[in-house]
Specification:
Length: 119
């Protein structure tokens, strides 16, 4: 919310005076200026969505439809746990998070500091 309140009113008012509609203002001004903030929100929330466990465990009853974190439970038994397979599965499940961070690290850095500087 702090990010959107920091938009310069003069820019929006100037585009209204030029005859731009609200949709044009949103599409041509607000969205391009907020790409870094939106990327940060997606990147910060992606690990929570990716590693979501309880909802998938409770709602999903079919083995073929299990998510990756729930599927890792198959390596745990009543009497023994296959730690080698479990750790390999956890490592593989972390790869998308690491790749996304490496690709978008500049946007994360910009988005985290974007709303903190007051003009």
């Amino acid at each position: 919310m702090a990010f959107y309140s920091s938009f310069l009113r003069q820019i929006i008012e100037a585009t209204r005076i030029d005859g731009a509609s609200e949709i044009t203002i949103f599409r041509k001004i607000v969205v391009p200026l907020s790409k870094a903030a939106m990327a940060t929100i997606v990147i910060v929330n992606f690990p929570f969505i990716w590693n979501e466990f309880v909802f998938a465990l409770v709602v999903n009853s079919e083995d073929a439809m299990k998510t990756l974190p729930v599927g890792l439970l198959n390596f745990r038994g009543q009497w023994a746990t296959r730690w080698d397979y479990l750790m390999a599965g956890i490592g593989i499940s972390c790869l998308p998070l690491i790749i996304i961070y490496l690709v978008f690290q500049n946007q994360i850095r910009r988005g985290v500091t974007l709303g903190s500087i007051k003009a």
